[in-house]
Amino acid sequence: xxxxxxxxxxxxxxxxxxxxxxxxxxxxxxxxxxxxxxxxxxxxxxxxxxxxxxxxxxxxxxxxxxxxxxxxxxxxxxxxxxxxxxxxxxxxxxxxxxxxxxxxxxxxxxxxxxxxxxxxxxxxxxxxxxxxxxxxxxxxxxxxxxxxxxxxxxxxxxxxxxxxxxxxxxxxxxxxxxxxxxxxxxxxxxxxxxxxxxxxxxxxxxxxxxxxxxxxxxxxxxxxxxxxxxxxxxxxxxxxxxxxxxxxxxxxxxxxxxxxxxxxxxxxxxxxxxxxxxxxxxxxxxxxxxxxxxxxxxxxxxxxxxxxxxxxxxxxxxxxxxxxxxxxxxxxxxxxxxxxxxxxxxxxxxxxxxxxxxxxxxxxxxxxxxxxxxxxxxxxxxxxxxxxxxxxxxxxxxxxxxxxxxxxxxxxxxxxxxxxxxxxxxxxxxxxxxxxxxxxxxxxxxxxxxxxxxxxxxxxxxxx
Length: 464
Description:
It contains eight helices and 14 strands. It has helices spanning 2-56, 103-123, 167-173, 328-334, 342-365, 374-387, 389-403, 415-424; strands at residues 129-131, 153-157, 176-177, 180-181, 184-187, 197-208, 213-215, 232-234, 249-255, 260-265, 276-280, 285-287, 293-295, 315-323. Strands 1, 2, 5, 6, 7, 11 and 14 form a seven-stranded antiparallel beta sheet that branches. A five-stranded mixed beta sheet has the order 8-9-10-13-12, with no helix packed on it. It has a two-stranded antiparallel sheet with strand order 3-4. Helix 6 (374-387) crosses helix 7 (389-403). It is rod-shaped and about 170 Å long. The model is unreliable at 71-75, 399-418 and 426-441 (pLDDT under 50).
């Protein structure tokens, strides 16, 4: 009985001790809940402000095709947005011609066509350009820029016969082309369809079938005979200055860059008994002994006699412009490049290198911002990000870290920093229960606890 009475007496003390422990646990949980509420309140405010900023945005516009009369009018230059209903459609991307595999060949072909059409419009001849295959127009054995050399491309412009200027007329009027007086003409020898000849016209002779004689009206007024600086002389005429009824020899003095004399036998059957031009290459001369060098025209010269007097109908055109050196490639393919001067290959190589460098310079100059359409630019950036996602992610992290590197004094952060940090956390936007620990209560005053003694008696307030 005594033991039972003692147990009954101790039971209230045990119950009071359990109730005290429960009170302590409830008080601790309440404090932790209060602290969690205080920490969660700024986050809720930020989420609320973020949602309110989303509500302030204009509503997205729906997709509308050009055939839809009921749709809203879109702003020009702004791609439509997705309304969220139905399958999502890609923004329209304008097709670029240079994306095609045939773009470069077609551009090259177009350039060639435009170039040929332009040359034809300028020369009125087809073909408009010819390759110089011999050194008959060179001034020596070296390539001289600006003169006609072996391997040059010469434009043959069709002109009226009356506008052709021979050497003797150019000497009187100071008209020169390609380093000498007079025009350089391209003609078919004897009017046949053989390889054209490109030589300089010296003088035009008029055939008189009645008297079987020649006349040279272009020589009228020029110094002649034994006069100082005489340009010509004729045999069988008074003082050697006659220009009509010529049957003997016509002598031209100091012709060309070598200042050679040219002798034309007017009675030779090689002239052809018709009117035409006496022609000669600038480099066609023969030097023999003390008599010096003499010119060899195409009509009576030996060994360069290739045609009779050049009639106006045989003339293809007059040399008006040229593209130096590049005709040597054609001669190289045909196996006739032995006469091409060595300097021509060097000049052509330097020209090709300069053109390539210029093309690269133009290419890089045109790669400035704003050349392509914004839609195409966004698509290219998305494609690059898809091909190399790690690099794009590193760039994104760099932008985020650079934007949030500065913090407010005292550890306070801005709403933008908090949102960026919340985006990086995997559980952003959800409330995660926080476990309490002893470190969370570090620095707090210890709670006042009423504990019962071993007899079950609680201490009074004044004893605490």
